[in-house]
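Weekly structure sync - notes
Attendees: PM, LS, DV (DV joined late)
Agenda: review two folding runs queued last week.

Item 1: First target. Sequence and C-alpha cells pasted below for the record.
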Amino acid sequence: MKTELPFRLFANCQLVKGAERSTICDLQRGKFHLIPNSLFDLLVEFQGSNIEDVKKHFDNEYDDTIDDYFSLLIKEELIFFSSIHNLFPPLNLQWDSPSDLTYALIDIGPTVYDNFLAIASQLDELDCKYVELRSYQPLSIDKLNTLLISFDESTVISVSLIVPHNENISTLEWKSFCDNHKRITSLTIHSSAQEINDQSPEYMVPILYRTEKISSELCCGVIHPGVFVSSTESFTESLKFNSCLNKKVGIDLDGNIKNCPSMRKSFGNISDTKLIEAINHDEFKRSWRYNKDVIEVCKDCEFRHVCTDCRAFLDNPENQLSKPLKCGYDPYTCTWEPWSTNPLKMNAIAHYGLSDVVIK
C-alpha cells in the first residue's frame, strides 16, 4: 500500500451520502459500492493526503479500520496515488441535451395506432432519440411492423418494445422481427409461461420472456435495485432533473398526452394537440425539475442518483414531492420491505386503484 503518496478518487467515482450509509458511484464501470458514512467523511476531508497522515490525524487509534477502508478502495480501483494534483481535474457534472425531448413512452391503443404516423413525425421534429412502446393486448406482427416502419429515417435511435405473449407468433418470428427493424434495442414479452432470456441471431437484440403480467399502466413505477443505473449521463442528469420524467413525454391508450401514461393530468390529445404544444406548458415541464434532492425521503437515500423515480404513484397523493409509493426501501434503517403490504401505504394504494393489481 502506497502510504507515502497522496490518494485521490478517480474522477468518475462520485460520492453520494445517505442518512445511514453512502455510495461510491463508479460511472465508468456502471457500478456502485456501499460504504459507511465514516468512509464518506474521510474521503471528503482527506482526499489529497496520504494514508499515514490520515492515521496520524486519528492518533493511530483506528489504523486497522483505515487499512480495511483503503484495501477496499484499492481493490475496487476507486482511488489512485499521485503527488501531482493539477493533472487530474474533477469530472464535469453539467448535463444538457439539444433535443426538446429525449424519451417517449407510448401505450398502444386504437387511437394511438390510428395516429401513429403523426406521432412519429412529431417525435422526429422534437429530435426524440428513445422510444418505449407498450401493449397490454396481443398485436400481430403486421401491426407491429406498421408501428416500427414509422421510425424509418427518423431521429429515433432506440425502440424498446413491451408486448404480451401471443401464441400465434413463434420464437423464430420474434427473432426475425427484431432483426428486420434495426432500431429495436430490446423486446420484452410479458405474461409468458416461463422466464427465458433469448436474443435475435443477427443483431443480438435481447428478447426477454417474463411471467409477470403487465395488464395496464397501473403496473408501472416499481422501484427496485434491478433498475438502478450508474452512468455519467444518468448521474449528472439526476443532479438537477427528475430521473424519470425529464425531457419525457407519455401518451396513454386513448391518445392523451401526459408526463407519463400512468399519470392522471392530461395536456391534450394526440388527435387534436401537437406534442410541442403539450410539452411547452409550464405545468408539464415543472415535473422535469423535481430531482431527488427535493423529494421527501429520497433526499436522504444513498441510492438517489442511481435510482429511477415515479411521480405517478406517491406515498402521499396530495404532495407532489412525496416518496414513490412503490418503493419499499427505508434509508433510515437500510432495509427493503414489500411496499404492497405496508399498512402505512394502504390508503394511497386504494386512492390509485392499485388494490387489485398483482405485484411480483
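Item 2: Second target, run right after the first with the same settings.
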Amino acid sequence: MLVKKSFLLLVIAVAAIITAEADEAEKQFAVDLDPEKFAEVIGAGNVFVKFFAPWCGHCKRLQPLWDQLAEIMNVDDPKVVIAKVDCTQHQALCAEHEVTGYPTLRLFKLGEKDSVKFKGTRDLPAITDFINQELNTPSEAELNELKADKEEDATNEIVEEGNTNLGKVVELKEDTFAKHVSSGNHFVKFFAPWCSHCQRLAPTWEDLAKELITLTSVTISKIDCTQYRSICQDFEVKGYPTLLWIEDGKKIEKYSGSRDLPTLKAYVEKMNGAPTDGGDNAADAANEVAKEEERDEAKKLTPQQLSGETEFDKTIANGIAFIKFYAPWCGHCQKLQPTWEQLAAEAHASSSDIRIAKVDCTAQENKQICIDQQVEGYPTLFLYKNGKRQNEYEGSRSLPELQAYIKKFISHDEL
C-alpha cells in the first residue's frame, strides 16, 4: 500500500513538472532552432538568431527582451523571424557561425551568404534600430503610408494654421511634435515601420481619422519611433504600437483596449467629452514646481548625468568615478535609483574626489560609450580610478555594500 502511494505521488510530481515545463515553453516566443530546422528557416526568410548557453548570465538577462522582441515580430508573414540556438546542444552549428562568446546575435538576410553580427547595446531601441537599418525594404503597408505622405504634409500645413482635423492622420516629426501636442487633445500612435502589429493597425488608424473628421477638437496622429527615438523615450514607449492620449502636452493615459475601429472611435469620443478638472491640473503644476525647486536645491548631491564621450572621459580621468549604465525603462535600474541618489549625496559629503554618475545607454550620444565600455545589460556598474576601469561590480546593490566597495579604492576612513 505504501509503495502504491509513493508511486502515485511520484506520478503526480512528474506530471506537475511536465505541466510547468509546458507552461514555460508556451511563454517562449522565439523560434528554437536545431541544425536541420536552422537551414530550413534561414532559407525561407530573414532571421535574427541569438546563439546562447543556458548557464550564461548575460544570456539570462537578455532573455526577457528577446522574448518581447519575438512576441512583436513573430506573427503571420513576419519581416524577420526572431530565433535562438542553444550552443550547449548544437556546438557544431555554433562553431560554423563563429560563435566565440555568449550571447552572440546574428542577422541572416534572405539570399545572402554572410550574416551580420549585432554589436550594439542590448536594449530594445538599439536592436530595433539595427533591424530597421539592415532590413530597409519597405512593406506594402509602409509603401501605402509613404504614398500618403504628400497628402499628410499638406494636412500638417493646414493644421499649423489652426484646422486641427481634416480626416487625415497627422504625421509628427521631431520639429513638429512638441508644438502640435502642446495644446488640445491628441490620440497618438507611436510605431515602427517594420512592426507587423503596426502594419495591421495602419488602415484602421487612417479610417479612425476619417470617422472623426467632424470632431475638430482632437487630432489622430502618429510618430515613427525608429526616426525620432528621443521623443518616444520621453513618453516611455516600450513596445509597438503604443497608443497614448495626450492633453495639452501631458500624457493622460495609455490605451490598452481593442484596436478595432468601433472601439477606438468610442474611446476617442469618451475621452474628448470627459470634463477636465482644473483644480487637479493646478495641483499637479504646483507639485511639479515644488519638485523642481527641490531638485535644484539638491543638484550637487545627485548622480551626475553624463552625456557624450567628452563629458564621460573628463569625469573618469581623475580620482574615483562610480558609474551606473542604465536604460530608463529598466525595472532593476528604477529600483536602484533611490539608493544611487543616496550614495551620491553621501559620497559628495565625504570627498570631492569621488563622483557618482550615470549614463543613459538609450540616448544616441551615449550609444558608442556603452559599446566601448562593453555594457551588456542594465544596470551595469563600473568603478573608474584615475581613468582605469575596474572589474564590473556584481555585489549587493544595498547602500552599505556599495559604500564598502568604494572604500576599497580610497584612503579615507569613512565614505
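Discussion on item 2: The longest helix spans residues 2-26.
Action: LS to circulate a short write-up before next sync.
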